[in-house]
Amino acid sequence: MSLDVKSMINQYMVATDPNSSEATSSVKTLVHQIENKQLSLLNFIKLLGDYLTDDSNTIRPKSLSLLSSTLDSIEFDKLQAKEVDVLVSFYSSKMEDPQCTMETLKGINALVSMKMFRPSSLKVILNDLKEKYESRGQLASTRYFAFLILQSIMEAKLEYCQTNLNDLFVETFLHVAKNEKDPKNLMISFKLNKAISDNFNVDKFSEDMFDSVYCYFPISFRAPENDPYKITGDQLKQALRDCLSAKSIYAKDSIPNLIEKLASTSPTVKLDVLKSLNQCIENYDTKTIEEYWISLWNSLKFEILHKEIASAEDLAALIKYYEEGDNESERVIPITWNIFQSMSNKYTDPKEQEGVRDYLILIVDELSKYLKDSEDTKSRQSAVIMASICSANVNSFNLLIAKVMKLLITPINDPEQAFTIKKQRMLLSNISFMLDAYYKLFNTDGLFVEHNNPIFEYKDIILTMVNQSLLATSNVEVTLRCLAIKIIGKLFTLKSFLTAEERQLLVQTLSEVLLEDDNVNTFKQALSSLNSISKDHPSIVLQYTIPKLLTLLPDNDLNQAEDLNKHITNEKVFDILSSISENILIINSLIIRLLNKLSTVLQSNGSQRYARELLLTISNILNKLNHKESTNDNLRKFVPRLLSLIFENVIFNESSVIYEDPIALEFTARSLKKIITEADLSLHQDTLDNFYKVLVSGETTNVILSNALVKPISVLKSNFILFSLFTAILGSVDKFVIFPTLSRDFVDSLVSVLDIETTLSERQATIQTLSLVVNKWFKSDNKEDSEYLEKMFVSLSSQVESKSTTLSQKLKSLELIAWINKSLLLKGDPLSDKYRSYLVSLLDNPDMSLLVPKCLAIAIADAPCFEQFKKAGPFGKSTTFNINVRPLYKQKFFDTLLPVLTKKFKETNGDDKTYLTTLSLILNHVNKEIVIPHLNEILPLILSSLSVNSNLTVSSSLSILKIAIIESPHLIERQMNSLVPKLLELLSITNMDNEDVKIKSLQCLIAMSNFQLHLVVPFRTLIINKLESVLDDKSRSVRRLACDCREVYYELGQPKAE
Amino acid sequence: MSSADPINANPTVLDASQLPTRHESKNATIQSQSLDRQEELNYYNQLYEFSLFNSELITKQRSYDDLTLPKIESDETIASISTGFEDITLRSKQPSQTGSNNNDNNCEEQEPIDAQEIYDLISTISDPEHPLTLGQLAVVNLNDIEVSNNSNHSQLSEIIIYITPTITHCSLATLIGLGIKVRLERCLPKRFRVTILLKEGSHQSENQVNKQLNDKERVSAACENEQLLKVIGHMFATCQ
């Protein structure tokens, strides 16, 4: 057995690298044998014996290394106390062997973690480290073990050290940590330092402990590229800060020293100093901070007072601005605010801490001269400082806010100086900061607002000022007025700040501004404030703003045109109404009121446009309902009134301004769509049945009508115009409701309607109705349905091809094929292949080739009747409930069509433009993601289509080209030689109205400038020169883009500015 | 650079939203595009997009005699809607008739180069000293730009720009002027002659700078200087 051990030892001894597999495997075997008592430690050492005392400077350390590695790997509880003792004294003796320091330290580290290690040995070890170990001259990895020993001791025997070896431990640490430079060792050194500060009594050593870390300040370490330790400068900085801030007794050294360093001109150092100061202030106790308060304040205040503060009215916005600032000198500002907050945070106990209280008041006193005069250059800075201090904790807020507010409002009552607009503006912006402090404490931190909060004393003054700014100053003072409006918005957000009456007052003021002030910015600001107010306080807006707005709408607008003094147009009123409809209460009340208005307008013969506008506004307002709100009530109450009014005027009353008006119906249809899709699905069956009864079966009284109809209606016989409403309803109901009649019969009737001469809008609505019925109520697995569609296909296609049918008849059939194809394609019906292939085959038919591209485009164009509405389905997935649609139908269509088109295009040698036209029309309707995988195939077509004499084709090709340039530049790079001149040629065409083409060409050129330099440089001069004529283009946006493009090429290859 | 010059360190800065834009310069009050008109147009456009019964296509292209067209509303808007489809096939054959009335109007409506356009070009240049634009620093102002745009493009047109340095001894006034000059040279057609002058009384050595800026030889010599061009390039980085 001993032979075995011997060979293991030898195997280790001959290995050149202690980390090699042979070496580690021998260590492993030895550890195993010792742990299993197959080998006693004594025997092991005996066998090692000679090596351990060998004279050679390589053999001795190596054998020791084997011993240490073995010890390191042995389970911590396998060694006897006696064995540990012997080993400790053995290693202690080895401490004097300078060649073996590393192995010795490693061994000791292994021993101190042993279970049977006796604390009494610690003294020896610490003394050895302190007396015999000399860090100078040792490798960084060796020094690391010295730190590791201390760390292991702290982990294992902390209590013993605290009671018995306090001083020795600290001294040893100070000795070990001396002169350390390696970042990894520094990290552990800093950690130890902090742990010692936390756990040991360092009163005696405070200066040494402080010096041992502060000598590294400020750290300018930047990790090298291939840093194995992954230690960043920021980690080191933070560790150092942790040490400095660990104990209040360091304050006497740290604060004066840090303040001194504040004078540094380097912003990085300054930032580091401020962060360290902040952490110290946070961690040191209040008494200590009190001691240094004055010197801290005096040295920090200028960091803010001497800086220009960015123009924002919001403390949070300011902080964000500065923290995201590009240069470090800007980031100094928010961290200084943090320090003031930390100082203010020390004021935790108003009863006890009179010192802090006095100091806080001292700050106000010192800043009072600035706060008093809002025009002073340091006024804004002082207000921000006070806002930070007040926002830190409620004690400071209660102590200071009244004093600050009193100072701030001094100018209002100053008899000697005029209260100018500028003063007013500055004052308001300062007050705004104070409100932020309130927001922070009571909204963000959620503190309870006492009824006697000191700021309430100044509430009246704030409100008066805001009101005055809005009601008593000229509209020209845009900045002041916008600021006042913003403050109103802010006041509304403050928790428990405004009373109900005050809210009403402010909303009234805002409404007035909205209607009186014609400045764009003021108006926008007022609207946005009112918009956010209406979310939380709809009743006030309903009570004050909306009636005011509605009175501005005349019953009859015909005389309005002459009324030039009226600066607020109906359109503007509608705009405002839509924009403040942010709450279901407002929405529901508004649509009813607008409907009443519409009824009055129609009776008093207002203009057609006015009536349409009202209908559009109703639909826009309804669209602001969010998906959580139910429209069931609207379906019951609003829809019948709307429908009766519409039917009366569109169908029966020939003198009405919207008699047979497709636009009015379109807007009505939108409202219906929204109401139905947002109502419960359980109501859909009844809804559809009722509409069918009224529109098709001729019922004159129904729950969806508030008044009985004078005559029955029938969309299939005469009132074709109502198909636009019917389509909207069919398109929005749940696809699982049952169609009131046999769907095939209904389609038959629709086809006969399509044979009647109708207007274009009627025809479109009819054909879309048909398409919807096929999509929703024809079942792919129903044999009769399929046969019906097959038969229809045969008859339609024969009509298209027959020589005897009129062109009009052919067009009708073709259009029908296109729409049936669309509805089948959407739901992935197997029949759709047949329809599609037929359409594709028609591309070769010279009679039809002009029309077929459009038919194919219709297939994937997003038609409003097929708009998808979703509801949360099973498993929490939202699913489309209103139509049958396959998720990837566009992609499938495109993927099957593309090869056919490219093939045919190649067969005709690119002479036949039909395929190009088809491709460009289709590309308009598919997403980028679908196109990208096919770029390689499409590109040849795209490039040749740039020469086609059609803006539409070229424009669509350019869109794809731009995608290609960005997504797969390698495809384009080869084509640069022909492409660049082609684009420039497109840009040089002057006579045509092709602004769109020009803009897209320029965008392509700009996108190409990102290619590798050697590819674009050859074209640089050409592009710059050729673009010169474009600089004189008729269109301003083309000129602008040409400037940008030239600029890009002028600066080609220059490093991009940050 | 700025820290050496404490007086210039804190110039008055205008917020970006305060700068004049085309929208305001037209003296429009609240502009609201006529939403209902737009929606109406969209509606008709969609009708044409989804229908094969596109009257223009059929009548102009093939003049089928036997075609009974669907009844088209008398409303003018329909007639004037461009579907964008017809030009695929028609442009080559009947260029004179293509393009709807609507678009023809747009064609004739020129958008001449005016002071606001010049302002937009140069106000976005950054100041070499501050991280702010010339517009924000009010070095260039809309009212200080004079444009005489000759409607005949074969004749010369003239632009005079008065710039206001942030302080009267601004050493970089020439650089700013040069930047503006280069920017306009790159962005305007050749028919424009650009003169850049310092606003009266805004600079200590006004005449000297004016002379330097409008001396062709000196400007083109400056443009030969790689280093200078690089600085100017940096000033333009904010222009897009």
UniProtKB/TrEMBL annotation, chain A:
**Which keywords accompany this UniProt record?**
DNA damage, DNA repair, Nucleus, Repeat
Where does this protein have coiled-coil stretches?
none
Provide the MMS19 C-terminal domain boundaries. Answer: 574-1008
Against Gene3D superfamilies, the record matches this protein to: Leucine-rich Repeat Variant
- Enumerate the transmembrane spans: none
Which is one Pfam family of this protein? MMS19_C
GO cellular component labels:
cytosolic [4Fe-4S] assembly targeting complex; nucleus
Q: Which domain of life is it from?
A: Eukaryota
- Where is this gene product found? Nucleus
The UniProt function text for this chain reads: Key component of the cytosolic iron-sulfur protein assembly (CIA) complex, a multiprotein complex that mediates the incorporation of iron-sulfur cluster into apoproteins specifically involved in DNA metabolism and genomic integrity. In the CIA complex, MMS19 acts as an adapter between early-acting CIA components and a subset of cellular target iron-sulfur proteins.
Name of the protein in its database record: MMS19 nucleotide excision repair protein
Annotated organism of origin: Ambrosiozyma monospora (Yeast)
Q: Where is the organism placed in the taxonomic lineage, from the top?
A: Eukaryota, Fungi, Dikarya, Ascomycota, Saccharomycotina
UniProtKB/TrEMBL annotation, chain B:
* Region entry Disordered, spans: 1-33, 89-108
Q: By what name is this protein known?
A: Unnamed protein product
- Give yes or no: UniProt keyword Disulfide bond: no
Q: What family does the entry list? A: Belongs to the MIP18 family.
Q: Where is the composition biased (Polar residues)?
A: 1-11, 91-105
Write the record's keywords in alphabetical order, separated by commas: Chromosome partition
State whether keyword Phosphoprotein applies. no
Provide the GO biological process annotations: chromosome segregation; protein maturation
